[in-house]
Design goal:
Shape: globular
Radius of gyration: 22 Å
Number of helices: 2
Organism: Xanthocytophaga flava
Enzyme class: oxidoreductase
Oligomer: single chain
Bound molecules: fe (ii) ion
Distance between the termini: 43 Å
Protein name: Homogentisate 1,2-dioxygenase
Largest sheet: 8 strands, antiparallel
Number of strands: 29
GO molecular function: homogentisate 1,2-dioxygenase activity
InterPro entries: HgmA_N (IPR046452), Homogentis_dOase (IPR005708), RmlC_Cupin_sf (IPR011051)
Strand order of the largest sheet: 5-29-7-8-15-10-13-19
Strand content: 35-45%
Helix content: under 10%
């Protein structure tokens, strides 16, 4: 996260004695990524963060791949993902490659029984339904419909939901998730032509600090396994931190669309990027205003990337028979484009209310066994002219 943030108490000079009011010293921890080259924060704990009491079970949670060489356009009915009480068990991985896991989840209960850390991946949660509070060792972030939550690898967290009716899209990215480089200046500040700026960020604000000794279960995801470690002190024992590595949020409703006289290409919707995929936000906006504009997109060959669209809300102009929670996968190597009749329907339209999240991966995606259960099985035929009847 390319802005400096601090919460709580800090010593005036880093790596110096930081005295507790009742004697003794706080314990400093450098919390960084990409070795010592990436973003980092300096944390001050009440207790040494290394006090493992017990190493318990390890469980293989590697997604089960059913189709590893996919050349078929797919439509997955995302809201058919069954709700589950437990936050981690609710996660259903659907599309995977060596860079990321793309999945959906419908968690019913708040995560309070244990703590969770993903040591493999930065996580992105997109809140389609529900609200609550992301509670982390570096502070809390209230969230609501439309929020992206970015949780850097290694962050210990829990999550509270206000109700049992929750729908999330999640990504586990083995590469750091950044704001788009093309929108940052050489200091990292977002430029004037960026669709969002620092003021839109949801930064962690309330630091929960516990001085509790006991048995605290931490489930750590590493190398596709979930490892259970018991710690001797409450993992939320940070009294203060500063730096650049912390969880943060951004609402898709604060993404300001870039429009033009003629159709703008998908990169104008770019919201986050990694070295292996991008995340784009398709938001309500005015259509192109050239008198002869064709608001529907042109056919395009995404030869080098697989394209995944997750439909959130509104009427998706270029697609027939698409509803909330649907996922379409357009594999690289073959062109795709508007459905029959969609181009003609778009002529003269002045605005769209569509809301969707797109993930374009630079390596092909594989489908899991769970994905095939959601597959409508016929989407790849939907560009045939005779399918105009299904409008
Ligand atoms: Fe596309």
């Amino acid at each position: 996260m390319p802005i400096y943030h601090k919460l709580g108490k800090l010593p005036t000079k880093r790596h110096t004695q930081f005295e507790k009011p009742d004697g003794g010293l706080y314990y400093e921890e450098l919390f960084g990524t990409v070795g010592f080259e990436g973003m980092s924060s300096l944390l001050y704990h009440l207790h040494r963060p290394t006090q493992v009491k017990q190493v318990g079970e390890s469980k293989d949670v590697t997604p089960k791949v059913a189709v590893d060489r996919n050349m078929k356009a797919r439509k997955l009915i995302g809201f058919q993902v069954p709700p589950a009480d437990d936050f981690l068990e609710s996660r259903v991985p659907l599309l995977v490659n060596t860079d990321l896991i793309f999945g959906l989840a419908a968690p019913r209960k708040s995560l309070r029984d244990y703590f969770y850390k993903n040591a493999d991946s930065d996580e992105l949660l997109f809140i389609h339904k529900g609200s609550g509070v992301l509670r982390t060792m570096l502070g809390n972030i209230p969230f609501e419909y439309g929020d992206y939550l970015i949780i850097p690898r290694g962050m210990i967290y829990q999550i509270d939901f206000a109700t049992e009716d929750n729908r999330l899209l999640y990504l586990e990215s083995h590469h750091p998730i950044y704001t788009p480089k093309k929108y940052r200046n050489w200091f990292g500040q977002l430029l004037e032509h960026s669709p969002y700026c620092e003021r839109d960020y949801k930064l962690p604000e309330q630091l929960e600090t516990y001085n509790e000794k006991g048995d605290f279960l931490l489930k750590i995801k590493k190398q596709g396994y979930l490892h259970e470690l018991m710690y001797g002190y409450h993992p939320f024992d940070v009294v203060g931190y500063d730096g650049y590595n912390y969880p943060w949020g951004f609402s898709i409703h604060n993404f300001e669309p870039i429009t033009g006289r003629v159709h703008q290409p998908p990169p104008v919707h770019l919201t986050f990027e990694t070295s292996a995929f991008v995340v784009c936000s398709f938001c309500p906006r005015l259509y192109d205003y050239h008198p002869k504009a064709v608001p529907a997109p042109y056919n395009h060959s995404n030869i080098d990337s697989d394209e995944v669209l997750y439909y959130v809300d509104g009427d998706f102009m270029s697609r027939n028979d698409i509803a909330q929670g649907h996922i379409t996968l357009h594999p690289g190597g073959i062109p795709h484009g508007p459905h029959p009749g969609a181009m003609e329907r778009s002529l003269g339209k002045t605005r769209t209310d569509e809301l969707a999240v797109m993930v374009d991966t630079f390596r092909p995606l594989m489908l899991t066994e769970e994905a095939l259960k959601l597959d409508d099985g016929k989407y790849y035929l939907s560009w045939l002219s005779e399918n105009e009847a299904i409008n």
